[in-house]
Design goal:
- The chain has helices at about 15-30, 40, 50-60, 70-80, 90-100, 110-120, 145-155, 170-175, 205-215; strands spanning about 5, 15, 85, 105, 130, 160-165, 180-185, 200.
- By secondary structure, the chain is an alpha/beta fold.
- The protein has a 6-stranded parallel beta sheet with strand order 5-4-1-6-7-8, with helices on both faces. Strands 2-3 form a two-stranded antiparallel ribbon.
- The longest helix is centred in the N-terminal third of the chain and has 14 residues, at about 15-30.
- The protein is globular, with a radius of gyration of 17 Å.
Length: about 220
Amino acid sequence: MQPTAVFDLDGTLVDSVPDIHAALNRLMAAHGEPPFTLQEVVGFIGDGVPTLLARAFAARGREPDAAALPGFLVDYEASAAQHTRPFEGIPAVLEALKAAGWRMAVCTNKPVAAAHVVLDALDLSHYFAAVGGGDSFPVRKPDPAHLLATLQAAGGNPAHAVMIGDHHNDIAAARGAGVAPVFVAWGYGPLAAADGAPVAARPSELPALLAAATGPTSIR
């Protein structure tokens, strides 16, 4: 059966923090609050935009402003790929996996419209059979149903799939779905978030790790 590689987006395929940072600071300025550093914003990422904004407002001692979400999304999507770039080596890895016969998909807590904006702008969309965003289904990572629904949309099978990500949500979703996990060390999450999953130190290590993860002796 054709194997499926399911990738997280932010911190795994692309370095999107510069554009998220800029959009978040524009929102903070509109609310009369000082800007965040890039590293502070890294700590807010991984659980979807509503949580991103809630963490930002909480860091300024304010209650979450639900009314800020629609405007933030419009502003962010308009410039989501201004400074966002694939991590070095990622395009070559995607091409290698495609040549090796892998089906590929994206499972991200980022809103699906924003995910498509980024993937289209960076000419990566053609690699993926499906994109499951944080608002594509009733649940999002770490709920395994998010990963399973993305896999179904891509035509993949959990028993022959790998979830690749940089966040504890990716590892938890994979294990809950019965999918082999691979953690990437170049992303935004701490290495401890790998929680025993195989770790890729650089993108060039992914093809071998993915092949091992779907082999007959792989452990989920």
